[in-house]
């Protein structure tokens, strides 16, 4: 299997190359040239297997023999052994036919752990094989940095540098990053805001001279391996609820579109899915595009569901490539127009998307209302991201007969602000994290100057 760019001009890559590469050289994102397809028998045979075994079977075709089976199986098994629930991503029934898929049992209590625990191990495997080392740089407004750090802390051939805005992330978020004291983990508090931190990371990728030839790797959600790892829980949830004999629907709290796109891949690989619902917060570009064909940027709004605060939804490009019948030139033209001015999709590809996808946007006041309402009805305290999904599933689901699975993307203890605003006393951290506020921290504080940051990285990488 080869991987090709959504804009049609970059060279095709192997799995190993695509794991080590972020953006394609033509500005596009990599997708598989062909998708594996599971027969009904193959899907039926997955029911009842362990999560790691399902993960191995679902991802094996994408790896394309570039890692031998025994090694790949052990990477997968190690990655999911870090989760505190034996089912890794368990289903919980809320009412007659509505389920939560709990994605928050990983080391940092949110769904990004599912992909990043595997991605770190894949990167380390390929780097070791090549006898290379690499540096990871990333900027975080609080939440995703910790998942990347946890995914890389045991990697011998990787050093990770995560920049966060000094004094502008919550104490829990900061400590989830800064209490990881591994030798290859470097947290940098930038005396500036998130945009300053992100701009310095972007500039470092654009001109990597300061690393004297060492590879710089991005672990953001455009990396194909993250999508691949996320396909697994759709298949696992689907077969647990009766697929392939029975259709299932999914409702996904969405921002960069990586999570729900992985669900769409599972569908294209043979999982019978009736409907995907895209839930957004007030940053609703996905909902505006799907509902009104308004494909335009809007100013960023800080919401109670901060991990979904985005202006542009980067992985949507992968769905566009599919909707435009893999016409890379058409995708490139649309996205170029989108960067300049408000635009719209062509009618035919939009109509195709609307056959499978519905969408709904949920504002902050409604998030609080939903947290209270869901608790009254089900006894569950939802985190604010999951709350957007709960409401969207209720409002736009196609039918009641098909099981609806809402993805619970974060643990409520991680987003205490919203939970407290909704009138609750807060939710305790899980026991394996209850000493987080007493653990030793380590981080550097640097001015928002590119030269200072790059010197720090060059001096500290191993
Ligand atoms: C990242 C994140 C999302 C959004 O996922 P995308 O793949 O960007 O659509 C939703 N909820 C939480 C808690 C997240 O961390």
Helical fraction equals 40-55%
Number of helices in the DSSP assignment = 18
From the 3D coordinates, which CATH architecture of the domain at 87-108 and 230-421 would you assign?
3-Layer(aba) Sandwich
Report the principal-axis shape.
Answer: globular
Strand order of the largest sheet: 3-4-12-9-10-11
Q: Which hetero ligands occur in this complex?
A: pyridoxal-5'-phosphate
% residues in beta strands? 5-15%
Q: What is the CATH first-level class name of the domain at 87-108 and 230-421?
A: Alpha Beta
Query: By helix and strand content, what is the structural category?
Result: alpha/beta
- Mean pLDDT across all residues, rounded? 96
Q: What is the distance, rounded to the nearest whole angstrom, between the alpha carbons of the first and last residues? A: 34 Å
Radius of gyration: 21 Å
Low-confidence stretches: none
Q: How can the largest sheet be summarized?
A: 6 strands, mixed
Catalytic activity: O-phospho-L-homoserine + H2O = L-threonine + phosphate
Domain Threonine synthase N-terminal: 2-80
GO molecular function, one term: threonine synthase activity
Pathway: Amino-acid biosynthesis
